[in-house]
Write the structure tokens for this entry.
Amino acid sequence: MQTKRCLLVALLSGVAVSAQSQNPPAAAKAPKQEAYVRRISAGLTLSVQGFSTVREGTSSNVTTSPPVDAAYTTTRTKGISQWIGYGVTAQASLTDHIAVNAGVFLRRMGYKLNSDIYTGVDNPNTTKDERTHTVTNEDTRARLLDFPVTIRYYTKNRHSPGPRAFLELGGVLRRVSSVRSSTDTTINDGTTSCCITTPATPGHRAAQGYVGGFGVQLIDPFGIRVVPEVRYTRWMTETFNAFSTSTRRNQVEAMISLSF
């Protein structure tokens, strides 16, 4: 009996040892890396331009056939031609250092165009000016929608902690919408005729440009990504271009984004 008990204990011990050797304890899982640049993020952006969208200036045009002597003056509409734009931005990481960024930004612009035009021929033998003198004042306002897309290169791996700088290059498309104009006309100091509301025709309703910039990503204690940056845009065409009115082809702006 004692011998049988010893054999049974030995058999059970062997089975337990065999089971342990066939089922080793699971290895501990590697800790998950924290992403300081998220795979996909989105947020809000505020932009402040270094220069106004519309150039202020004067131009003239003198012809002999037909006889016309015209002077034009364009001024920016204060409070309408804003230096500030705003919109939304989104980013997707392609590698640990490279990401694609896209946005949609709204800007408003406005200008006033004064036209002082003499037509016809003046008789030099009289004191009166026989030419027709026409003065028009055009007030135009519009919305600009910008759609930039850039590729960003971050100086740090997206899993490395701390602030990180980036460089970006890309392109942008601009669309003009909601063009509204009001024009009054005065002929020979007579009664002013008001108002013609035919919208001014943009030189290009769609304009393309190239974008370059640099910035830095910061992370606040709540995990919100704060991204200040500076961008330069070179527009290939002018949105408005008539007489003394033109939009700038060089655009410099400071931007700040809050992304989540």
In short: Residues 2-22 form the longest helix (21 residues).
